[in-house]
Amino acid sequence: MAESKPRMIFLGPQHPGAPGNVAFKVWLKGEKVVKAELVPGFLHRGFEKMMENRWWEVDVVLSPRYCVEDPDNFELAYVLAVEDLFGVEAPEKAKVVRTIVAEMSRIQSHLFWLMHMGGATGARYIPGWAMAAREEILKWYDYVTGHRIYHHYMTPGGIRWNIPKDFKEVTLRALNKVMPIVKDIEDAFINNRILRARTEGIGVVKGYVAVQLNATGPTLRAAGIKYDVRKVDPYEAYRDVDFEIPTGTEGDAHDRIVVRIREIYQSKRIIEQLVERVKPEDLNYRVKMPLLPPPSLPWPAVARHGEGMSRVEAARGEAMVHVVGIKDRKPYRVKLITPSMPLLTTVMDYIIEHEDITIADLPIIVMSLDPCPPDIDR
Amino acid sequence: MSVAEGHAEGKDEVLELIRRSLPPGKFKEVVATRWPRRYIVFIDAWALRPVMEALKVAGFDRFIAIEAIDWYNIEPVFELLYYVESVKLGGPLVIVRTKIPRNNPEIDTIRDIYPLAHWQEIENYEFFGIRFRGHPDLRLWILEDNWEGPPPLRKDFDTVKYVLETYYGGKKWERPVKRREPPPPRGEE
Questions:
Q1: B95 found inside a domain
Q2: Spatial distance between the Cα atoms of A214 and A212, rounded to a whole number of angstroms
Q3: Is A100 in a helix, a strand, or coil?
Q4: Using the beta-carbon criterion (under 8 Å), do B1 and A318 form an inter-chain contact?
Q5: What is the set of domains in chain A, with CATH numbers?
Q6: 3-state secondary structure of A227
Q7: Which 3 state secondary structure label does DSSP give B84?
Q8: Within a domain: residue B100?
Q9: CA distances for A119 relative to A9, A251, A265, angstroms
Q10: Out of A213, A299, A333, whose CB is closest to B69?
Q11: Cβ atoms of A205 and A350 closer than 8 Å
Q12: What is the mean pLDDT of residues A41-62?
Protein backbone atom coordinates (compact mmCIF):
# COMPACT_ATOMS: atom_id res chain seq x y z
CA MET A 1 0.00 0.00 0.00
CA ALA A 2 1.19 3.45 -0.75
CA GLU A 3 2.22 5.72 2.14
CA SER A 4 -0.81 7.78 3.12
CA LYS A 5 -0.53 11.54 3.20
CA PRO A 6 -1.23 13.36 6.48
CA ARG A 7 -4.76 14.71 6.62
CA MET A 8 -5.37 18.18 8.04
CA ILE A 9 -8.35 18.89 10.28
CA PHE A 10 -9.33 21.89 12.37
CA LEU A 11 -9.64 21.47 16.12
CA GLY A 12 -11.52 24.43 17.51
CA PRO A 13 -12.49 27.16 18.05
CA GLN A 14 -15.88 25.66 18.89
CA HIS A 15 -14.65 22.20 19.77
CA PRO A 16 -15.36 21.18 23.39
CA GLY A 17 -11.81 19.96 23.68
CA ALA A 18 -10.34 23.29 22.68
CA PRO A 19 -9.45 25.52 25.60
CA GLY A 20 -11.42 28.54 24.45
CA ASN A 21 -11.38 30.78 21.44
CA VAL A 22 -8.44 29.19 19.72
CA ALA A 23 -8.02 26.69 16.94
CA PHE A 24 -5.42 24.17 15.94
CA LYS A 25 -4.64 22.87 12.52
CA VAL A 26 -3.91 19.24 13.27
CA TRP A 27 -2.22 16.98 10.75
CA LEU A 28 -3.17 13.36 11.26
CA LYS A 29 -1.79 10.11 9.96
CA GLY A 30 -4.48 7.65 10.85
CA GLU A 31 -5.11 8.53 14.48
CA LYS A 32 -1.59 9.76 15.16
CA VAL A 33 -1.00 13.49 15.41
CA VAL A 34 1.94 14.44 13.20
CA LYS A 35 1.89 18.18 13.68
CA ALA A 36 -0.33 20.79 15.30
CA GLU A 37 -0.23 24.44 14.48
CA LEU A 38 -1.83 27.16 16.54
CA VAL A 39 -4.34 29.45 14.85
CA PRO A 40 -4.87 32.41 17.20
CA GLY A 41 -6.65 35.68 16.63
CA PHE A 42 -10.29 34.84 17.24
CA LEU A 43 -10.39 37.18 20.21
CA HIS A 44 -7.99 39.90 19.15
CA ARG A 45 -9.31 43.26 20.27
CA GLY A 46 -6.18 45.39 20.18
CA PHE A 47 -5.91 46.11 23.90
CA GLU A 48 -2.49 47.70 23.63
CA LYS A 49 -3.73 50.22 21.08
CA MET A 50 -6.96 50.86 22.99
CA MET A 51 -5.06 51.57 26.18
CA GLU A 52 -2.89 54.13 24.41
CA ASN A 53 -6.03 56.13 23.64
CA ARG A 54 -7.54 56.20 27.13
CA TRP A 55 -6.67 57.77 30.46
CA TRP A 56 -4.40 56.03 32.91
CA GLU A 57 -7.19 55.30 35.39
CA VAL A 58 -9.68 54.26 32.72
CA ASP A 59 -7.27 51.61 31.46
CA VAL A 60 -7.76 49.70 34.71
CA VAL A 61 -11.12 48.66 33.30
CA LEU A 62 -9.45 47.25 30.19
CA SER A 63 -6.53 45.64 31.95
CA PRO A 64 -8.21 42.42 33.21
CA ARG A 65 -10.37 41.80 30.18
CA TYR A 66 -7.99 39.71 28.16
CA CYS A 67 -8.37 36.76 30.50
CA VAL A 68 -11.80 35.84 31.79
CA GLU A 69 -10.58 33.13 34.08
CA ASP A 70 -7.92 35.00 35.99
CA PRO A 71 -8.72 38.71 35.78
CA ASP A 72 -7.33 40.05 39.04
CA ASN A 73 -3.73 39.05 38.61
CA PHE A 74 -3.57 40.91 35.29
CA GLU A 75 -5.35 43.88 36.83
CA LEU A 76 -2.82 43.84 39.63
CA ALA A 77 0.02 43.79 37.10
CA TYR A 78 -1.28 46.91 35.36
CA VAL A 79 -2.00 48.76 38.60
CA LEU A 80 1.47 47.98 39.96
CA ALA A 81 3.11 49.19 36.75
CA VAL A 82 1.22 52.50 36.86
CA GLU A 83 2.04 53.01 40.53
CA ASP A 84 5.65 52.28 39.72
CA LEU A 85 5.66 54.91 36.98
CA PHE A 86 3.95 57.58 39.08
CA GLY A 87 6.17 56.84 42.06
CA VAL A 88 3.20 56.20 44.35
CA GLU A 89 3.07 53.47 46.93
CA ALA A 90 -0.24 52.01 48.01
CA PRO A 91 -1.02 51.82 51.74
CA GLU A 92 -0.35 48.60 53.60
CA LYS A 93 -4.02 47.72 53.89
CA ALA A 94 -4.58 48.05 50.15
CA LYS A 95 -1.63 45.78 49.46
CA VAL A 96 -2.97 43.07 51.73
CA VAL A 97 -6.50 43.25 50.30
CA ARG A 98 -5.19 43.17 46.76
CA THR A 99 -3.15 40.08 47.55
CA ILE A 100 -6.25 38.36 48.93
CA VAL A 101 -8.25 39.30 45.83
CA ALA A 102 -5.46 38.05 43.55
CA GLU A 103 -5.22 34.74 45.41
CA MET A 104 -8.98 34.26 45.21
CA SER A 105 -8.62 34.83 41.50
CA ARG A 106 -5.99 32.10 41.35
CA ILE A 107 -8.31 29.66 43.13
CA GLN A 108 -11.24 30.41 40.83
CA SER A 109 -8.99 30.15 37.78
CA HIS A 110 -7.79 26.72 38.84
CA LEU A 111 -11.39 25.67 39.49
CA PHE A 112 -12.42 26.89 36.08
CA TRP A 113 -9.56 24.89 34.62
CA LEU A 114 -10.69 21.81 36.57
CA MET A 115 -13.99 22.11 34.77
CA HIS A 116 -12.21 22.06 31.40
CA MET A 117 -9.96 19.22 32.50
CA GLY A 118 -12.93 17.14 33.60
CA GLY A 119 -14.60 17.84 30.29
CA ALA A 120 -11.50 16.89 28.31
CA THR A 121 -11.08 13.57 30.09
CA GLY A 122 -14.76 12.71 29.97
CA ALA A 123 -15.33 12.88 33.74
CA ARG A 124 -18.71 14.50 33.45
CA TYR A 125 -19.30 15.05 37.17
CA ILE A 126 -16.21 17.24 37.67
CA PRO A 127 -17.39 20.34 35.73
CA GLY A 128 -20.50 20.64 37.90
CA TRP A 129 -18.58 20.33 41.13
CA ALA A 130 -15.85 22.73 40.07
CA MET A 131 -18.30 25.36 38.89
CA ALA A 132 -20.30 25.03 42.11
CA ALA A 133 -17.12 25.79 44.05
CA ARG A 134 -16.24 28.68 41.75
CA GLU A 135 -19.73 30.08 42.23
CA GLU A 136 -19.00 30.55 45.94
CA ILE A 137 -15.97 32.64 45.06
CA LEU A 138 -17.97 34.66 42.53
CA LYS A 139 -20.53 35.37 45.26
CA TRP A 140 -17.70 36.49 47.51
CA TYR A 141 -16.44 38.79 44.75
CA ASP A 142 -19.94 40.12 44.25
CA TYR A 143 -20.21 40.96 47.93
CA VAL A 144 -16.76 42.51 48.34
CA THR A 145 -16.14 44.25 45.01
CA GLY A 146 -19.61 44.60 43.52
CA HIS A 147 -18.87 42.56 40.40
CA ARG A 148 -18.75 38.89 39.60
CA ILE A 149 -16.34 38.38 36.71
CA TYR A 150 -14.28 41.53 36.11
CA HIS A 151 -13.92 43.40 39.37
CA HIS A 152 -11.91 46.60 38.79
CA TYR A 153 -11.46 46.63 42.53
CA MET A 154 -7.84 47.67 42.38
CA THR A 155 -6.97 51.13 41.30
CA PRO A 156 -3.62 52.92 41.06
CA GLY A 157 -2.99 54.08 44.61
CA GLY A 158 -4.97 51.46 46.47
CA ILE A 159 -8.35 49.79 46.32
CA ARG A 160 -11.48 51.42 45.00
CA TRP A 161 -13.57 51.28 48.18
CA ASN A 162 -13.30 49.94 51.66
CA ILE A 163 -13.90 46.31 52.47
CA PRO A 164 -17.20 45.34 54.14
CA LYS A 165 -17.35 45.13 57.93
CA ASP A 166 -17.63 41.35 57.96
CA PHE A 167 -14.81 40.84 55.46
CA LYS A 168 -12.99 38.26 57.53
CA GLU A 169 -16.06 36.12 58.22
CA VAL A 170 -17.25 36.27 54.62
CA THR A 171 -13.86 35.32 53.27
CA LEU A 172 -13.40 32.41 55.62
CA ARG A 173 -16.95 31.24 55.00
CA ALA A 174 -16.37 31.27 51.24
CA LEU A 175 -13.15 29.28 51.66
CA ASN A 176 -14.88 26.80 53.96
CA LYS A 177 -17.48 26.19 51.30
CA VAL A 178 -14.91 25.82 48.51
CA MET A 179 -12.33 23.60 50.15
CA PRO A 180 -14.58 20.54 50.86
CA ILE A 181 -15.52 20.50 47.18
CA VAL A 182 -11.85 20.69 46.21
CA LYS A 183 -11.19 17.79 48.57
CA ASP A 184 -14.03 15.83 46.95
CA ILE A 185 -12.62 16.52 43.50
CA GLU A 186 -9.21 15.43 44.69
CA ASP A 187 -10.55 12.15 46.03
CA ALA A 188 -12.78 11.37 43.08
CA PHE A 189 -10.67 12.69 40.23
CA ILE A 190 -6.96 12.90 40.93
CA ASN A 191 -6.45 9.35 42.14
CA ASN A 192 -9.03 7.92 39.81
CA ARG A 193 -7.65 4.87 37.98
CA ILE A 194 -9.10 5.94 34.63
CA LEU A 195 -7.72 9.46 34.89
CA ARG A 196 -4.28 8.13 35.79
CA ALA A 197 -4.33 5.85 32.78
CA ARG A 198 -5.22 8.73 30.51
CA THR A 199 -2.84 11.37 31.89
CA GLU A 200 0.23 9.64 33.27
CA GLY A 201 3.17 9.68 30.92
CA ILE A 202 1.35 11.91 28.47
CA GLY A 203 2.53 15.38 27.53
CA VAL A 204 5.86 15.06 29.29
CA VAL A 205 7.92 18.21 29.69
CA LYS A 206 10.43 17.24 32.30
CA GLY A 207 13.25 19.11 33.98
CA TYR A 208 15.32 21.84 32.43
CA VAL A 209 13.72 21.32 29.01
CA ALA A 210 10.75 23.32 30.26
CA VAL A 211 12.99 26.36 30.78
CA GLN A 212 14.56 25.94 27.37
CA LEU A 213 11.08 25.92 25.86
CA ASN A 214 10.47 29.19 27.74
CA ALA A 215 7.50 27.70 29.58
CA THR A 216 6.23 29.32 32.74
CA GLY A 217 3.84 28.84 35.62
CA PRO A 218 2.49 25.46 36.75
CA THR A 219 3.91 23.82 33.61
CA LEU A 220 7.39 24.83 34.69
CA ARG A 221 6.78 23.77 38.28
CA ALA A 222 5.31 20.41 37.28
CA ALA A 223 8.53 19.81 35.36
CA GLY A 224 10.29 19.92 38.71
CA ILE A 225 11.66 23.45 38.70
CA LYS A 226 10.91 25.48 41.78
CA TYR A 227 10.32 28.87 40.26
CA ASP A 228 7.63 31.31 41.25
CA VAL A 229 7.70 35.08 40.85
CA ARG A 230 5.94 35.43 44.19
CA LYS A 231 9.13 34.03 45.75
CA VAL A 232 11.93 35.20 43.48
CA ASP A 233 10.70 38.77 42.99
CA PRO A 234 8.08 39.31 45.71
CA TYR A 235 5.48 42.02 45.29
CA GLU A 236 2.59 43.29 47.41
CA ALA A 237 2.13 41.29 50.60
CA TYR A 238 3.90 38.12 49.48
CA ARG A 239 7.12 39.13 51.22
CA ASP A 240 5.86 38.33 54.71
CA VAL A 241 3.58 35.42 53.95
CA ASP A 242 4.46 31.82 54.55
CA PHE A 243 3.73 29.45 51.68
CA GLU A 244 5.33 26.73 49.62
CA ILE A 245 5.82 26.20 45.91
CA PRO A 246 4.42 22.82 44.91
CA THR A 247 6.47 21.03 42.28
CA GLY A 248 6.07 17.84 40.32
CA THR A 249 8.58 15.17 39.42
CA GLU A 250 7.54 13.62 36.11
CA GLY A 251 6.30 16.68 34.25
CA ASP A 252 3.38 14.85 32.64
CA ALA A 253 -0.26 15.89 32.43
CA HIS A 254 -1.07 14.23 35.75
CA ASP A 255 1.68 16.14 37.53
CA ARG A 256 0.30 19.39 36.21
CA ILE A 257 -3.12 18.50 37.63
CA VAL A 258 -1.62 17.67 41.01
CA VAL A 259 0.47 20.86 41.09
CA ARG A 260 -2.56 23.04 40.43
CA ILE A 261 -4.64 21.33 43.10
CA ARG A 262 -1.85 21.81 45.61
CA GLU A 263 -1.61 25.45 44.57
CA ILE A 264 -5.25 25.90 45.59
CA TYR A 265 -4.32 24.76 49.11
CA GLN A 266 -1.38 27.16 49.19
CA SER A 267 -3.61 30.04 48.08
CA LYS A 268 -6.00 29.20 50.89
CA ARG A 269 -3.07 29.24 53.30
CA ILE A 270 -2.00 32.69 52.06
CA ILE A 271 -5.53 34.10 52.38
CA GLU A 272 -5.95 32.72 55.89
CA GLN A 273 -2.76 34.43 57.01
CA LEU A 274 -3.58 37.75 55.38
CA VAL A 275 -7.22 38.00 56.40
CA GLU A 276 -6.17 38.45 60.02
CA ARG A 277 -4.27 41.59 59.10
CA VAL A 278 -6.98 43.71 57.48
CA LYS A 279 -9.24 45.87 59.59
CA PRO A 280 -12.42 47.35 58.09
CA GLU A 281 -12.23 50.41 60.36
CA ASP A 282 -8.82 51.40 58.96
CA LEU A 283 -9.68 54.06 56.38
CA ASN A 284 -6.22 54.43 54.91
CA TYR A 285 -6.82 52.25 51.88
CA ARG A 286 -6.13 54.62 48.99
CA VAL A 287 -3.75 57.46 48.27
CA LYS A 288 -4.47 60.21 45.81
CA MET A 289 -2.81 59.81 42.43
CA PRO A 290 -1.49 62.76 40.46
CA LEU A 291 -3.17 63.29 37.10
CA LEU A 292 0.05 63.32 35.11
CA PRO A 293 3.12 61.14 35.42
CA PRO A 294 6.23 62.88 36.78
CA PRO A 295 8.15 64.98 34.25
CA SER A 296 10.44 63.03 32.00
CA LEU A 297 14.10 63.81 31.75
CA PRO A 298 15.59 65.23 28.56
CA TRP A 299 15.73 63.19 25.39
CA PRO A 300 17.64 61.39 23.74
CA ALA A 301 18.65 59.21 26.67
CA VAL A 302 16.17 56.46 25.94
CA ALA A 303 15.61 54.92 29.31
CA ARG A 304 15.37 58.30 30.99
CA HIS A 305 11.74 58.54 29.96
CA GLY A 306 9.18 57.65 32.53
CA GLU A 307 8.69 53.93 32.67
CA GLY A 308 6.97 51.59 35.02
CA MET A 309 7.18 47.85 35.15
CA SER A 310 5.57 45.09 37.14
CA ARG A 311 6.01 41.38 37.30
CA VAL A 312 3.41 39.12 38.86
CA GLU A 313 2.70 35.41 39.03
CA ALA A 314 -0.69 34.90 37.42
CA ALA A 315 -2.46 31.56 37.58
CA ARG A 316 -0.90 30.54 34.25
CA GLY A 317 2.57 31.86 34.87
CA GLU A 318 4.59 34.99 34.84
CA ALA A 319 2.80 38.11 33.59
CA MET A 320 4.43 41.49 33.11
CA VAL A 321 3.23 44.95 32.23
CA HIS A 322 5.53 47.67 30.95
CA VAL A 323 4.13 51.19 30.69
CA VAL A 324 5.83 54.19 29.11
CA GLY A 325 4.56 57.65 29.91
CA ILE A 326 5.45 60.97 28.42
CA LYS A 327 3.83 63.86 30.29
CA ASP A 328 0.32 63.07 29.20
CA ARG A 329 -3.01 61.91 30.60
CA LYS A 330 -2.73 58.80 28.45
CA PRO A 331 -0.01 56.17 28.37
CA TYR A 332 2.42 56.35 25.46
CA ARG A 333 2.80 52.60 25.30
CA VAL A 334 1.43 49.71 27.31
CA LYS A 335 2.97 46.31 26.74
CA LEU A 336 1.11 43.36 28.17
CA ILE A 337 3.38 40.36 28.47
CA THR A 338 1.26 37.31 29.09
CA PRO A 339 2.05 33.72 29.96
CA SER A 340 0.09 31.63 27.48
CA MET A 341 2.00 32.00 24.24
CA PRO A 342 4.86 29.57 25.00
CA LEU A 343 2.43 26.92 26.25
CA LEU A 344 0.60 26.55 22.97
CA THR A 345 3.55 27.08 20.63
CA THR A 346 6.93 25.85 21.82
CA VAL A 347 5.71 23.42 24.48
CA MET A 348 3.02 21.89 22.24
CA ASP A 349 5.49 21.49 19.37
CA TYR A 350 7.96 19.78 21.68
CA ILE A 351 5.37 17.34 23.04
CA ILE A 352 4.09 16.37 19.60
CA GLU A 353 7.61 15.94 18.29
CA HIS A 354 8.73 13.68 21.14
CA GLU A 355 5.67 11.53 21.78
CA ASP A 356 3.25 9.32 19.95
CA ILE A 357 -0.01 11.19 20.44
CA THR A 358 -3.42 10.26 19.14
CA ILE A 359 -6.19 12.72 18.48
CA ALA A 360 -7.90 11.61 21.72
CA ASP A 361 -4.87 12.70 23.76
CA LEU A 362 -4.70 16.13 22.24
CA PRO A 363 -7.49 17.82 24.28
CA ILE A 364 -6.00 16.38 27.47
CA ILE A 365 -2.56 17.75 26.69
CA VAL A 366 -3.87 21.16 25.66
CA MET A 367 -6.06 21.44 28.72
CA SER A 368 -3.38 20.23 31.10
CA LEU A 369 -1.18 23.12 29.91
CA ASP A 370 -4.07 25.43 30.83
CA PRO A 371 -3.59 28.19 28.30
CA CYS A 372 -5.81 31.27 28.21
CA PRO A 373 -6.03 31.92 24.47
CA PRO A 374 -7.30 35.52 24.66
CA ASP A 375 -4.06 36.55 26.28
CA ILE A 376 -2.18 35.37 23.19
CA ASP A 377 -4.42 37.55 21.00
CA ARG A 378 -4.91 40.49 23.35
CA MET B 1 10.21 57.98 37.31
CA SER B 2 13.28 57.34 35.29
CA VAL B 3 14.59 53.85 35.01
CA ALA B 4 18.27 54.36 35.61
CA GLU B 5 17.74 56.11 38.94
CA GLY B 6 18.97 54.63 42.16
CA HIS B 7 21.76 52.29 41.16
CA ALA B 8 22.09 49.36 43.48
CA GLU B 9 24.36 50.11 46.40
CA GLY B 10 27.41 47.99 46.98
CA LYS B 11 28.58 45.10 44.88
CA ASP B 12 26.05 43.47 42.62
CA GLU B 13 27.09 39.98 41.61
CA VAL B 14 24.62 39.55 38.75
CA LEU B 15 25.64 42.92 37.29
CA GLU B 16 29.28 41.83 37.43
CA LEU B 17 28.33 38.52 35.79
CA ILE B 18 26.55 40.26 32.93
CA ARG B 19 29.44 42.68 32.39
CA ARG B 20 31.93 39.84 32.42
CA SER B 21 30.06 37.53 30.09
CA LEU B 22 29.02 39.98 27.36
CA PRO B 23 31.45 40.17 24.43
CA PRO B 24 33.60 43.30 24.86
CA GLY B 25 32.94 46.10 22.42
CA LYS B 26 29.51 44.77 21.46
CA PHE B 27 27.45 46.59 24.07
CA LYS B 28 27.19 50.22 25.01
CA GLU B 29 26.21 50.15 28.64
CA VAL B 30 24.97 47.79 31.35
CA VAL B 31 23.01 49.40 34.17
CA ALA B 32 21.28 48.25 37.30
CA THR B 33 17.84 49.80 37.44
CA ARG B 34 15.83 51.15 40.34
CA TRP B 35 14.00 47.84 40.34
CA PRO B 36 15.94 45.30 42.34
CA ARG B 37 17.50 42.51 40.30
CA ARG B 38 16.44 43.92 36.94
CA TYR B 39 19.14 45.10 34.55
CA ILE B 40 19.25 46.89 31.24
CA VAL B 41 21.80 46.31 28.48
CA PHE B 42 21.99 49.00 25.79
CA ILE B 43 23.32 47.74 22.48
CA ASP B 44 23.50 48.65 18.81
CA ALA B 45 21.21 46.67 16.55
CA TRP B 46 24.06 44.86 14.76
CA ALA B 47 25.28 43.35 18.02
CA LEU B 48 21.98 41.70 18.95
CA ARG B 49 22.87 38.11 18.13
CA PRO B 50 26.27 37.93 19.90
CA VAL B 51 24.80 39.65 22.97
CA MET B 52 21.79 37.31 23.19
CA GLU B 53 24.04 34.28 22.68
CA ALA B 54 26.33 35.46 25.46
CA LEU B 55 23.38 36.07 27.77
CA LYS B 56 22.08 32.57 27.14
CA VAL B 57 25.46 31.08 27.93
CA ALA B 58 25.65 33.21 31.07
CA GLY B 59 22.47 31.54 32.36
CA PHE B 60 19.66 33.79 31.17
CA ASP B 61 17.70 30.86 29.94
CA ARG B 62 14.04 31.88 29.83
CA PHE B 63 13.04 34.22 27.05
CA ILE B 64 9.96 36.26 27.90
CA ALA B 65 9.03 38.63 25.10
CA ILE B 66 9.99 41.22 22.52
CA GLU B 67 8.49 44.65 22.95
CA ALA B 68 8.57 47.39 20.32
CA ILE B 69 8.05 51.06 21.11
CA ASP B 70 7.34 53.46 18.27
CA TRP B 71 9.01 56.77 19.21
CA TYR B 72 7.23 58.36 16.28
CA ASN B 73 7.34 62.11 16.91
CA ILE B 74 10.07 62.09 19.51
CA GLU B 75 12.70 60.27 17.47
CA PRO B 76 12.22 58.39 14.19
CA VAL B 77 13.11 54.98 15.60
CA PHE B 78 11.55 51.79 16.83
CA GLU B 79 12.98 50.80 20.14
CA LEU B 80 13.12 47.05 20.71
CA LEU B 81 13.20 45.53 24.17
CA TYR B 82 14.15 41.89 24.59
CA TYR B 83 13.18 40.47 27.98
CA VAL B 84 15.14 37.50 29.28
CA GLU B 85 15.24 36.10 32.80
CA SER B 86 17.33 33.52 34.52
CA VAL B 87 15.67 30.57 36.18
CA LYS B 88 19.09 29.13 36.91
CA LEU B 89 20.21 32.18 38.90
CA GLY B 90 16.87 32.49 40.64
CA GLY B 91 15.00 35.24 38.91
CA PRO B 92 17.10 38.21 37.73
CA LEU B 93 15.72 39.89 34.63
CA VAL B 94 17.66 41.51 31.79
CA ILE B 95 16.17 43.87 29.23
CA VAL B 96 18.26 44.26 26.09
CA ARG B 97 17.37 47.56 24.43
CA THR B 98 18.26 48.66 20.95
CA LYS B 99 16.99 51.10 18.36
CA ILE B 100 16.37 50.58 14.66
CA PRO B 101 15.48 53.26 12.11
CA ARG B 102 11.79 53.77 11.55
CA ASN B 103 11.96 53.97 7.76
CA ASN B 104 13.89 50.72 7.42
CA PRO B 105 12.96 48.56 10.41
CA GLU B 106 15.17 45.50 10.12
CA ILE B 107 17.01 43.43 12.69
CA ASP B 108 18.50 39.95 12.93
CA THR B 109 16.32 37.10 14.09
CA ILE B 110 17.15 35.24 17.30
CA ARG B 111 14.69 32.42 16.76
CA ASP B 112 17.43 29.80 16.80
CA ILE B 113 18.73 31.03 20.16
CA TYR B 114 15.39 31.13 21.98
CA PRO B 115 12.50 29.12 20.48
CA LEU B 116 9.76 31.46 21.68
CA ALA B 117 11.37 34.34 19.79
CA HIS B 118 10.06 32.75 16.58
CA TRP B 119 6.47 33.59 17.57
CA GLN B 120 7.28 36.89 19.23
CA GLU B 121 8.99 38.04 16.04
CA ILE B 122 5.92 37.17 13.97
CA GLU B 123 3.81 39.19 16.41
CA ASN B 124 6.05 42.22 16.11
CA TYR B 125 6.11 41.86 12.35
CA GLU B 126 2.35 42.04 12.06
CA PHE B 127 1.76 44.78 14.61
CA PHE B 128 4.74 47.02 13.82
CA GLY B 129 5.98 45.90 10.42
CA ILE B 130 9.44 45.14 11.74
CA ARG B 131 11.28 42.67 9.51
CA PHE B 132 13.48 40.08 11.16
CA ARG B 133 16.37 39.04 8.91
CA GLY B 134 16.63 35.28 8.62
CA HIS B 135 13.11 34.54 9.84
CA PRO B 136 11.55 32.13 7.31
CA ASP B 137 7.92 32.59 8.22
CA LEU B 138 6.99 36.26 8.63
CA ARG B 139 3.26 36.49 8.00
CA LEU B 140 0.02 37.65 9.52
CA TRP B 141 -0.63 35.27 12.41
CA ILE B 142 -2.94 36.84 14.96
CA LEU B 143 -4.46 39.11 12.30
CA GLU B 144 -4.62 36.33 9.71
CA ASP B 145 -7.43 36.60 7.11
CA ASN B 146 -8.67 39.68 8.86
CA TRP B 147 -6.47 42.66 8.10
CA GLU B 148 -5.51 44.63 5.03
CA GLY B 149 -4.42 47.91 6.60
CA PRO B 150 -1.00 49.12 7.75
CA PRO B 151 0.63 47.67 10.89
CA PRO B 152 -1.91 48.72 13.52
CA LEU B 153 0.23 49.44 16.56
CA ARG B 154 2.35 52.10 14.85
CA LYS B 155 1.78 55.58 16.19
CA ASP B 156 0.90 57.05 12.79
CA PHE B 157 -1.96 54.59 12.42
CA ASP B 158 -5.16 56.35 13.47
CA THR B 159 -7.76 53.74 14.36
CA VAL B 160 -10.79 56.04 14.19
CA LYS B 161 -9.77 57.51 10.84
CA TYR B 162 -9.09 54.09 9.36
CA VAL B 163 -12.40 52.71 10.53
CA LEU B 164 -14.36 55.66 9.15
CA GLU B 165 -12.54 55.50 5.82
CA THR B 166 -12.89 51.77 5.51
CA TYR B 167 -16.17 50.66 7.04
CA TYR B 168 -18.75 53.37 7.80
CA GLY B 169 -19.63 54.60 4.34
CA GLY B 170 -16.08 53.86 3.19
CA LYS B 171 -14.42 51.29 1.01
CA LYS B 172 -15.96 48.27 2.62
CA TRP B 173 -19.39 49.77 3.13
CA GLU B 174 -22.06 47.68 1.48
CA ARG B 175 -19.43 45.58 -0.19
CA PRO B 176 -20.74 43.11 -2.74
CA VAL B 177 -21.39 39.70 -1.29
CA LYS B 178 -19.12 37.12 -2.83
CA ARG B 179 -21.24 34.29 -4.14
CA ARG B 180 -19.82 30.89 -4.76
CA GLU B 181 -19.75 29.54 -8.28
CA PRO B 182 -22.52 26.96 -8.66
CA PRO B 183 -21.08 23.46 -8.80
CA PRO B 184 -20.73 21.95 -12.28
CA PRO B 185 -23.67 19.80 -13.32
CA ARG B 186 -23.22 16.18 -12.50
CA GLY B 187 -23.55 13.08 -14.52
CA GLU B 188 -23.30 14.65 -17.96
CA GLU B 189 -19.87 13.93 -19.31
A1: yes
A2: 5
A3: helix
A4: no
A5: 46-364 (1.10.645.10)
A6: coil
A7: strand
A8: yes
A9: 21, 21, 23
A10: A333
A11: yes
A12: 87
